[in-house]
Amino acid sequence: MSNISIKLTRDDFNFKFKQYEGMYFHAELNDNSEVVRYKITKDKDCNELKEFGNTHLKDDMIYIPQIEAYIKIK
Fold it and tell me: How far apart are the C-alpha atoms of 68 and 20, rounded to whole Å?
C-alpha cells in the first residue's frame, strides 16, 4: 500500500469545478485492488476535509473525478 498527494493547481490541470483549485488530493493505493480511496483537503496536512470517496486505477494511472482526468502514478 502506498499514498500519494497532489496539489490541484490551475497551472497543471483544467478544472471543471473551480472550488477544487488549490486543494490537495490524497489517495491510498492498495496493490490488491483497482479501487482507490481518496480525500480532498484544504491543506497539505489533511486537517480540513473537503470531500472523500472512491476512484479507480487504469493502466498505471489514477482517475481524479473532480478534474475529470487520469494522472500517471509514477
Answer: 12
The CA distance from 35 to 28, in Å, is: 9
Q: Kindly report the length of the chain.
A: 74
Give phi and psi for 19, each to the nearest 5.
Answer: -65, -10
The per-residue pLDDT for 69 is 85
Q: 40 has which bridge partners?
A: 25, 51
The CA-based dihedral angle spanning residues 43, 50, 37, 69, taken in that order and rounded to the nearest 10 degrees:
-90
Which of 18-22, 23-27, 42-46 is least confident?
18-22
Residue 37, H or E segment: strand 35-41
